Amino acid sequence: MADPSPKPVPLLKDELDIVIPTIRNLDFLEMWRPFFEQYHLIIVQDGDPNKTIKVPEGFDYELYNRNDINRILGPKANCISFKDSACRCFGYMVSKKKYIYTIDDDCFVAKDPSGKNINALEQHIKNLLSPATPFFFNTLYDPYREGADFVRGYPFSLREGAPTAVSHGLWLNIPDYDAPTQLVKPRERNTRYVDAVLTIPKGTLFPMCGMNLAFDRELIGPAMYFGLMGDGQPIGRYDDMWAGWCVKVICDHLGLGVKTGLPYIWHSKASNPFVNLKKEYKGIFWQEEIIPFFQSATLPKECTSVQKCYIELSKQVKEKLGAVDPYFNKLADAMVTWIEAWDELNNTSEQTTSKQANGAAK
Amino acid sequence: MADPSPKPVPLLKDELDIVIPTIRNLDFLEMWRPFFEQYHLIIVQDGDPNKTIKVPEGFDYELYNRNDINRILGPKANCISFKDSACRCFGYMVSKKKYIYTIDDDCFVAKDPSGKNINALEQHIKNLLSPATPFFFNTLYDPYREGADFVRGYPFSLREGAPTAVSHGLWLNIPDYDAPTQLVKPRERNTRYVDAVLTIPKGTLFPMCGMNLAFDRELIGPAMYFGLMGDGQPIGRYDDMWAGWCVKVICDHLGLGVKTGLPYIWHSKASNPFVNLKKEYKGIFWQEEIIPFFQSATLPKECTSVQKCYIELSKQVKEKLGAVDPYFNKLADAMVTWIEAWDELNNTSEQTTSKQANGAAK
């Protein structure tokens, strides 16, 4: 006799991995069970590799601790941060799937204004599977969404859109503020549900947060490097920002789209602003030079794959940001190591090149 | 004895004019009475000047018909369109106030999700009086709004923002679609209330709709020319688009911000798509060349006032778009006439120059 109520197969079930960096037991997954249970998880354990991380029953997962990372990458493991959630990008590298969703373990299921639990992953998938509109702004937001379209005056030649590489989701409750803002506004909570998804226009940078983020690994994966943060590094909490700047410059060059907006998750806990300030303070003044660097960065035509773009960007980082601090020379080297490790594990440097070229030509 | 309940004085009561182009009695103002009654209206009567337009009692207004426009501008009146709502820009020119709000006479008061009537004008004023953020994208939308701020990774040097020149409001019910989309989706209604205001990033063009629009006349007024449309012209329904492209290029050059999003009005009536198609069809293919032209247009440093920018832009229009159709030569000439007429009526070409320079330097 057949199961009377078989679970419906969720979107992209076998084409998406959920990457979670953590230092604790993953009880938060209980709340996500209805939405995550049928997907494969990649857990990247940060900190002490001898600690055991408990994962609730019924989830399908693989877990990597520092010993695993060292064993798999050998000397190239030095490009993966330690004692920092930047280590999550190792999960992007070992995944064999086309799509990645990454979420922090202090993020819970949020409710929409009608009180319904939001299936964040489903919304990310919708964002990734529909085109983006980086070349012209649509005032009614995502024109591919039901009940919306391109408005009067939107060029018809641009209505096919561009492939979407990144879907950046937002946070209710604790907003993603820097340490100074946390210190100044300790009680501020985000309660505004903005019912929109929009494409960040070509040529515009944005602060990409890694808390609730999905992307197309084949289109942009090799650029999703979260840099050198945490243990032994002069900076923290800029891992996702670094990735976001690089990703956006490369997406703009390759004609790919980056979306932001829905879905929301419920961010449960503000991190300690004093600890954050210590991690961030160099970033706070470095970013005043880093951002103009990325705003003016251009990539030559020959850069037809994400890997080629990323290697070129690493050269420019060394050349232009090396003078800001020697850290950027180390980071530029790590960017190269990251690409080498990515290609070794994925064995796709040629394959990705031609895929990228197709993607960009669309 | 004092009035027991004096009406509160609304924001910018003596610094803002409401400009309404119309061909019919303005019964729609009844619905707006609580929000508009204390402001001054400038009504631009389109079409037959012998027709009498009835304005509900109690409104303070001045009304201009075609005879008035011809009398006031003399031979320069040929830059003001006839039999097209583009004539509204005459109202911008004769206003003596710092701010303008313009609204179509088929736009009613919309309700927010809680069922409350939306004071569209008040929201526009809030948008105009708070800074814009054109140089970097803030993922939580308007950082100056209550309950929001700049997110982690937003450069501190950019948090002062830029002066806001334009506030572009949206429409519930009938969306602002072009004729082909109207024909394909005759029953589509916009029911999504997106609770956001955002700055359109520097370098990105957008389709500016004139239905529900506010701007700072001192900062950008001379660029708000709605072009040559309607009677005797090969094109219609591109008046606001034309203004939007010019305005955005000039705002980007002068370091001014353009916001879009809230407030919504209730757009009551879809215009006839067959009539619209006739007006639009040349625009539909011309815009494929016009938009790349504006996307790549750059203004020299010497253009330090809106007027100088606009005259320079008119030269580039003639040079680059004249080949598309002779209409653009005529339009380029009208752009110059418009600026001459503006300066004549406002007697502020020098004054505006220095104000602009201050605005841009902020």
Automatic annotation (TrEMBL), chains A, B:
GO CC terms, sorted: cytosol; Golgi apparatus; plant-type cell wall
Keyword vocabulary terms for this entry: Cell wall biogenesis/degradation, Glycoprotein, Golgi apparatus, Isomerase
Localization (cell): Golgi apparatus
Signal peptide: none
Catalysed conversion reaction: UDP-beta-L-arabinofuranose = UDP-beta-L-arabinopyranose
Domain of life: Eukaryota
Residues carrying the site annotation Required for activity: R152, R159
GO MF annotation, one: UDP-arabinopyranose mutase activity
Pfam families in alphabetical order: RGP
GO biological process per UniProt: cell wall organization; plant-type cell wall organization or biogenesis; UDP-L-arabinose metabolic process
E.C. number: 5.4.99.30
Glycan-modified residues: R152
Annotated function: Probable UDP-L-arabinose mutase involved in the biosynthesis of cell wall non-cellulosic polysaccharides.
Family, per entry: Belongs to the RGP family.
Name assigned to this protein: UDP-arabinopyranose mutase
Species of provenance: Vigna radiata var. radiata (Mung bean)
Gene that encodes it: LOC106753415
